[in-house]
Amino acid sequence: MHIDWAALGSVFGVSLVVTVALVGLFTLGIVGLSRRETATASGNSAALATTAAYTCFAACAAAVAYGIYLIVA
């Protein structure tokens, strides 16, 4: 049995980077929603924070859907 260590390291590196990026993007979405709550409480407009939060969540959903597509197809 031969293990291709370079390919295994490459898969590990790519999955680590994608996981950190996806968690960071989701975190930005949560921060955007919390800023929306803060802006609403102080009486300011929260349109930009809400749009940014929903965009982050949509990008997360698209990345997960693409990953599922790659696994199933």
Q: Any key phrases for this structure?
A:
2 helices, 73 residues, mainly alpha
Q: Structural class of the helix and strand makeup?
A: mainly alpha
The global form is elongated
Would you tell me the overall average pLDDT? Answer: 91
Radius of gyration: 18 Å
Low-confidence stretches: none
Task: Work out the helicity level.
Answer: over 70%
Number of strands: 0
Please characterize this protein's 3D structure.
The protein is mainly alpha-helical and 73 residues long. It has one domain (18-72). The protein has helices at 5-42, 47-72. α1 runs antiparallel to α2. The protein is elongated and about 65 Å long. This is Secreted protein. The chain crosses the membrane at residues 6-34, 46-72.
List the helices and strands and how they pair.
Layout: H1 5-42, H2 47-72
Helix pairs in contact: 1-2
Summarize the structure.
This is Secreted protein. By secondary structure, this protein is mainly alpha-helical. It has helices at about 5-40, 45-70.
